[in-house]
Design a protein that fits this description.
The chain has about 400 residues and is α/β, with parallel strands linked by helices. It is built from 11 helices and 18 strands. The strands form 4 sheets. Strands 1, 2, 5, 6, 7, 8, 17 and 18 form an 8-stranded mixed beta sheet that branches. Helix 1 runs parallel beside helix 11 (about 375-390) and helix 5 crosses helix 8 (about 265-275). The radius of gyration is 22 Å and the shape is globular. The two termini are about 20 Å apart. The mean pLDDT is about 95. Bound molecules: flavin-adenine dinucleotide. Flavin-adenine dinucleotide binds near residues 45 and 46.
Length: about 400
């Protein structure tokens, strides 16, 4: 059995950044670190999800990236006068997806992270006397003195209950195998009211499709998916002072601008609606009839929309990620959870002396930015601080 000092489960944005931090700042020796992820490459889910939307730029500013120094992405982009047009978008210097991904590649090369990638899915995890034991779907077992759960939510796209799962014309944009992009103009119904739905709709309009967009709510505009105050001490301190985890959950829910689009996207969508390029429908879908050549999407007030295919841009399920693997881990060491099912961890993001969390699983400690790139950086700070303070015995 392979025994490691550190095993990161999940090789997405969070897992890759934390690996870089452990190697670059945490005095972890490369051979002692593994990153377990089922993708052919690290960051595969990030690349699939972002390319499925057609987004050209990130929503977050350029200081949010996977390298160590805060200005690394700006430096990577080179001198302003030599930069490719569109390398950053206003406002807030948001990097292009192309630039951000090239910078991620550089981070991976700097720390030789592909060499640390163990391809596989953890299906069972338990805390033993002096290690955490992880079983993969292929039956192989790994043991690690310390584990970081960086699972993300991308393995659980949110399928509305009315959406049939067995009709190839109905697809979720964040499925593990992303939907094919329609080659010829057709009538397409996009469901969702947030930034991903907006990206998909605008991309389809550009490709001359007949696009319907169904949203539960009116267009909601926010530059970021939570107030920038959450990136500083202003709100974070209030959050930290709140010791009741159920009240923390309510603060997170209130703070996240779920289903919102940035102002420039709002303008593009309104322009498309005004020009008749986008058919906007507000309301709840009640069902879909699939027995015809065209899909018929039923909405409240007897509205029926016809389309050749449905693209669900309904985000991710909010339930705790990790499924049975995390259930087993909880049972093995009686790990504490809040009413919402999410971990109660200490300020070093420790759920157990050998188990750290990041991303959604760290939300009740890091607040509304926990799932984002900024949250990965915060998680990296906390874990590295724990190592430096000597509070991890086997680091
Ligand atoms: C389209 C899109 C655009 C976004 N844009 C921004 C942005 O501009 N700025 C920003 O800050 N945030 C953005 N986000 C939010 C967030 O930063 C991303 O969702 C990010 O990918 C989250 O990273 P992660 O590592 O937590 O999760 P994931 O990307 O989900 O990666 C987790 C990995 O863990 C693996 N995994 C899960 N379970 C197991 C297991 N049992 N065993 C092994 N591996 C496992 C998964 O397969 C996956 O590869 C965006 C999200 C999306 C979907």
């Amino acid at each position: 059995m392979t025994t490691l000092t550190w095993l990161i489960i999940g090789g997405g944005i969070h897992g890759v950044h934390i690996a870089a931090r452990l190697l670059g700042e945490g005095r972890v020796v490369p051979e002692d670190l593994g990153i377990l992820d089922p993708g052919d490459h690290l960051l595969a889910r990030w690349r699939d999800a972002t390319s499925a939307t057609g987004m050209t730029h990130l929503r977050s500013p350029s200081v949010h990236h996977l390298a160590l120094p805060h200005d690394a992405l700006q430096r990577f982009a080179g001198k302003r006068k030599n930069r490719k047009p569109g390398a950053f978008a206003i406002p807030f210097e948001r990097p292009s997806l192309e630039l951000f991904n090239a910078h991620c590649d550089q981070v991976e090369r700097t720390f030789d992270l592909e060499a640390r990638h163990i391809k596989g899915q953890a299906v069972h995890c338990s805390v033993e006397c002096d290690a955490v034991r992880v079983r993969l779907e292929c039956g192989r077992e790994l043991e690690a003195r310390n584990v970081v759960l960086a699972l993300g939510s991308s393995d659980q796209p949110n399928w509305p209950s009315w959406a049939p799962r067995d009709d190839p014309r109905v697809r979720h944009i964040f499925d593990r195998t992303p939907p094919d992009w329609p080659a010829r103009p057709e009538s397409i119904v996009v469901v969702g009211g947030g930034i991903s739905a907006g990206h998909v709709a605008l991309r389809l309009i550009k490709d001359d499709h007949d696009v319907h967009l169904i949203s539960r709510h009116p267009l909601q505009q926010h530059q970021f998916d939570s107030d920038p105050g959450w990136l500083g001490w202003k709100y974070t301190e209030l959050f930290t002072q709140e010791r009741d985890v159920d009240r923390r959950r309510r603060l997170i829910t209130d703070a996240r601008h779920t289903g919102s689009v940035p102002p420039d996207m709002g303008r593009s969508l309104r322009r498309a609606i005004a020009r008749g390029k986008l058919h906007w429908h507000q309301g709840e879908v009640t069902g879909v009839a699939t027995d015809d050549d065209a899909l018929r999407i039923m909405m409240e007030k007897d509205t029926v929309i016809r389309g050749g295919r449905i693209l669900l841009a309904t985000g991710f399920d909010r339930r705790r990620p990790g499924g049975a693997m995390v259930d087993d881990l909880i049972a093995s060491a009686s790990l504490p959870c809040a009413t919402c099912g999410y971990p109660i961890v200490d300020d070093s993001l420790r759920w157990h002396s050998r188990v750290f969390v990041s991303g959604p699983l760290a939300e009740l400690e890091l607040g509304p930015v926990s799932r984002n790139i900024a949250g990965a950086r915060r998680a990296g700070d906390r874990i590295v601080d724990a190592i430096r303070s000597g509070s991890i015995s086997d680091s």
